[in-house]
Design a protein that fits this description.
217 residues; 6 helices
Length: 217
């Protein structure tokens, strides 16, 4: 049996349906505006993955892969589409890691809410795993994380976490310590969830500096 080799990058994304994406920004942007912003953030994330050139990129789609936006992403960015499994975010993340690590030595998993994440961060995360770390994370200012990379799947990193809370990163640190793993945290970044984050995004010029206007939405 051939040993797993190489790196796969997994991006989690919801379908950019009106009323179902970026709901905390609906009071500011409206349902259509929030969904359109989500689509732009997904495209920027995939653009960053392509620039990093780490290997295979999978877009894990919720609730499924049938949305025309996801099909556009597959064609335009050359990513492979996978449906997310049932369950909470932790269950879906663990399933994605378990499957990918059966065929790849290193897996990086991220969402699409952190436009400050660059190709340099991706390469740095992969290099950390190649240098022997069991895990690597990019913390977020709100107490979560924008990226987690692993070289082995472990359900205890994901079970019973209060996702979308300010304690996600702290709880993950505690679990990594309990496991006795070697891990590294990279630069702390910021993501886009709340109205004040949207203002920061507009001031940053990050969306304008990319080609996210291309294609659907």
């Amino acid at each position: 049996m051939t040993a797993p080799d190489g790196t796969v990058v997994i991006v989690f994304a919801k379908s950019p349906r009106s009323g179902a994406a970026k709901t905390r920004l609906v009071p500011l942007l409206g349902e259509e505006g929030a969904a359109a912003l989500h689509a732009k953030l997904v495209k920027r994330t995939l653009e960053t993955m392509r620039a990093a050139s780490l290997g295979r990129v999978e877009l894990h789609c919720a609730p499924g892969t049938d949305d025309p936006f996801f099909r556009f992403c597959a064609g335009h960015f050359g990513v492979t589409l996978q449906p997310q499994v049932a369950g909470d975010l932790g269950a879906r993340m663990f399933s994605a890691f378990e499957s990918a690590l059966a065929t790849h030595a290193f897996v990086l998993l991220l969402g699409s809410d952190c436009p400050a994440l660059t190709a340099h961060h991706l390469r740095q995360a992969e290099r950390t795993l190649r240098d022997g770390a069991d895990a690597v994370l990019v913390p977020c200012e709100d107490g979560g994380y924008a990226l987690i990379g692993l070289r082995r799947a472990e359900p205890r990193l994901f079970d019973g976490i209060a996702w979308s809370s300010e304690n996600v990163m702290a709880e993950t640190r505690a679990r990594l310590t309990a496991l006795g793993w070697r891990w590294r945290e990279l630069e702390t970044l910021w993501d886009v969830d709340r109205p004040e984050d949207y203002v920061r995004l507009m001031d940053s010029g990050l969306l304008e500096s990319s080609s996210v206007a291309t294609g659907i939405r």
